[in-house]
Design brief:
The chain has a domain of 115 residues. The chain has 9 helices and no strands.
């Protein structure tokens, strides 16, 4: 009876030692994953331009890049349109590009004001008497200059809207490098969280078994 009890005790001791060893290994793994998780929360993994959550990306970095690209396309369209304004390109040459800005490229009234300012500031002195824009009568401005300027703003607006629409589709959004990086970081964080929860559950289960065997030995 005594030998049987001793054998049972030895067997239980070995089993408890195995449980303790497994617990120790799991605890070390949990410490590692906890450290990694903390590093991610502390932005130890390089990320782009402060995006705390996936939803903020679409509203800030990615959308801002799409808007900038659309503005560039719209400005180019406005410049091309203004080149069709009678006498404007001949008077300003390459400096015509300075007339268009990110704030006025798709606004008809703003572009008309800019063209009028060109006449008021550049059509000075006898040297400009040969420039069509400078000698054009006022009634010709109404029929030739203003319509072309308005058309330039309209084309710029259409180019801007079209480019922005194409740049903010779901497919384009999901294939953007910043979004892909965010998905990778979030996926890693979720995987680490799942592993951490599994280890916590297993550790709790093992501890419960260990307590049961300890009570049995006593």
């Amino acid at each position: 009876m005594k030998n049987t009890r001793q054998k049972c005790k030895d067997k239980c001791d070995k089993y408890i030692q195995k449980i303790i060893l497994k617990d120790k290994l799991e605890k070390e793994l949990m410490d590692i994953f906890t450290t990694l998780q903390t590093d991610i929360q502390n932005e130890a993994i390089p990320t782009c331009s402060a995006f705390p959550e996936f939803g903020a990306i679409g509203g800030t970095v990615v959308y801002a890049a799409a808007v900038k690209a659309a503005i560039d396309v719209g400005m180019k369209a406005a410049i091309e349109g203004l080149k069709g304004v009678t006498g404007l390109s001949a008077l300003l040459k390459e400096k015509i590009t300075y007339l268009v800005t990110p704030t006025n490229f798709k606004c008809p009234d703003a572009l008309i004001t800019v063209v009028q300012n060109v006449k008021n500031t550049k059509c000075v002195g006898t040297a400009t008497n040969s420039q069509i824009l400078c000698i054009l009568p006022e009634d010709q401005w109404v029929t030739r200059i203003y319509p072309k300027t308005v058309e330039a703003a309209r084309e710029a607006s259409e180019a801007y809207i079209s480019t922005l629409s194409n740049s903010t589709t779901i497919t384009t959004f999901l294939t953007h490098p910043i979004v892909i990086s965010a998905i990778v970081v979030i996926s890693i964080a979720l995987i680490l969280l799942i592993i951490y929860l599994i280890l916590c559950y297993r550790r709790k289960k093992k501890m419960k078994k260990k307590l049961q065997y300890t009570k049995l030995l006593k």
